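User: Is it possible to get a 3D structure for a protein together with its bound compound? The compound here is uridine-5'-diphosphate. I've pasted both below.
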Amino acid sequence: MSKRVLITGAAGFLGSHLCDRFIAEGYKVVAMDNLITGDLKNIEHLFGKDNFTFYHHDVTTFVHVPGRLDYILHFASPASPIDYLKIPIQTLKVGSLGTHNLLGLAKEKNARILIASTSEVYGDPLVHPQSEDYYGNVNTIGPRGVYDEAKRFQESITMAYHRFHGLETRIARIFNTYGPRMRLNDGRVIPAFIGQALRGEDLTVFGDGTQTRSFCFVDDQVEGLYRLLLSDYSLPVNIGNPDEISILDFAEEIIKLTGTDQKIVFKPLPKDDPLQRQPDISRAQEILGWEPKIDRATGMAKTYDYFKNLSPEELLKSEHKDFSKHIRK
Ligand code: NAD
Ligand code: UDP
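Assistant: Yes, that's possible. Here is the predicted structure of the complex:
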């Protein structure tokens, strides 16, 4: 009998790719999302399949799923700095209350749960590259604290359910991941730069651009997450691509990739923006036999193709998503 998996945040970037992967592997997929930052268009190709069900639901309220569940992947959460700065309370709630609800559901169903943690648990790291035994450097009361601390709490409560209730848990510390279906106006650097290039605008580099990131293509990320879920390892595992680049060099790569002659303009560095980030993936290599296979040139070409083919109306929508209808006053 095929296994049944619940994926929260299913209408988002990573959640929708996970839905595709689990459907392709022959699972029954129960998808859940409140559509606050996600979009049904990311999963509309799955509607109508026998092994796919969608619940429009906010996981910060009690989560009920009828029937058996073998696995839960908890991916619901705003993920871009601009999103979580605009909806800070929702971000705190989905990482804390939402995670608590899903752990309770996992316990009730005797299901294994994987939670989407993040490199942001390392904050603005003082250790480089970041390995899982680094405790991080987070400003609890800064603007990014709503995301970072929610994710740190998420890890703590997950380990508590593991230790206290014997629940089977997995923790993925996901580093910057990109690919088709990112929201063009979510403010993250890749859709921001590509959108700017396609609209003929200048590329906005924050700070002096010497801060670094290490970008992982979504197919590699999904493979790492899939292996982690099926492993027997319950401590956190970094999943990301160690190929590190400065944001200024990356802006220049985008100008070459898009064949445009945009200028680079410098804007203030957002508060607590990490100055360096690179995953140490030795644990994933050792435990999961996993490492990324897709280099940045290949992954970015696929990503650019996706954005290039968006409708002109979507491309012109550079303003940030309006969250007002999702927010209770
Ligand atoms: P995304 O914004 O595209 O997807 C998040 C999804 O969660 C959206 O569809 C949104 O509508 C949904 N959601 C948010 N709050 C919800 C709630 N209360 N109830 C139900 N659904 C809710 O972001 P993403 O990049 O796909 O990120 C997915 C997960 O992976 C997040 O938990 C994020 O923290 C984590 N992550 C992502 C990255 C990355 O680089 N993409 C890096 C680190 C961690
Ligand atoms: N960034 C930038 N210009 C933009 C958007 C982002 O220079 O228009 C920078 C941002 O300051 C950060 C890096 O790009 O240093 C990655 O930002 P992103 O929002 O993608 O994610 P983060 O890794 O900070 O969570």
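The chain has a mean pLDDT of 96. The pocket of uridine-5'-diphosphate (ligand 2) is lined by residues 80-81, 176, 187-189, 192, 204-206, 211, 213, 247, 270, 273 (CB under 6 Å).
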